[in-house]
Amino acid sequence: METDPVDRPVTAVGRGEKVETDSGAGGRDPWKTVLYNCGCHTFDAVEKIVIKATRCSLSQARSISNEVHTRGSAAIYEGHRERCEAVAEVVASIGLRVEVVR
Q1: pTM of the predicted structure, to 2 decimals
Q2: Over 80: is that where the pLDDT of 10 sits?
Q3: Which of 13, 42, 51, 65 is close enough to 46 for a disulfide, judged by CB 3.0 to 4.6 Å?
Q4: Half-sphere exposure of 86 (CA within 13 A, CB side)
């Protein structure tokens, strides 16, 4: 697990991986950044932007891109709302469809 500049845990989420989350104050359910399949980006482009946004490994990014391709969507990050929104902003910068949900 890595930390972002304000020392919050950074967790990329892929199929079959144990998820560690930063659930915020009071132990409330964490927010999630969900990436949707659009069919207009290459696996390589998706993997690169997921790595940039979440600071995950190439292996995790490949797992995520495969899940998005086969299932139609995947949670790529879980944590505080502000960090999820920051991850979504980076991913959306190349035209991918993402949303932040609870």
Answers
A1: 0.74
A2: no
A3: 65
A4: 15
